Amino acid sequence: MMKTQSPFLDTLFLLRKEECITIFTDVKKISPKEEQEVAEYFESEFEKERLEFLSDQIPFDKEAAVWAAKILYHSVQLYLVRENTEKDLSQLIPGFRGQLTVSSRLSADLSLRFLPQIIISLKNTDPDDPLIALLENILKQFHYSGIETELDLENLNWEEELKDKTYRKLYLERIVENKVYRLAEIPYINRLLTAEFGWYKDISGKN
Hints:
It is a single chain. By secondary structure, the chain is mostly helical. The chain is built from 12 helices and no strands. The chain has helices at 7-18, 32-53, 62-80, 89-92, 102-112, 115-125, 130-141, 158-161, 165-178, 181-184, 187-197, 201-204.
């Protein structure tokens, strides 16, 4: 993919593909044209990932994908540029207003999976940064994207959360991939891991 004239798309593309970021001198506004370009890009990325979870029953959620892309883009910019932005945080990092479904979670994950690293960087710079709480609240709602982040998920009904077979399988695989012991030890998830992987020795690397 060649560079475009869209800071929005270029930033997201470089972050996803090369894990590097574009530095701007201020927080750029996003045009409707840029939003459409990002929606098309993430729809193609979603289709590629759909091949991995082997389900054509989960459609792409454009609204969730574009919202999450904005959250990621603004988070990156706010990490770098904070002058005169305090009053705009709630506008730049709004909550999700759509319906929370498996489709919206997986579509948003294309961007939100990068938030844990941004949160770590923010905490290293200033543990009291108000942006941290905003991003953590988003990950509490989209916790599939923040599995490796220490989040307060005590009140979740895990049976309800993981009732979709495809989403449940992806969630368990991500727990194993990231070796998230605190989630693996939750009784309901532990039983699922036992059934799926034959005890969760796979997550600890034990024989």
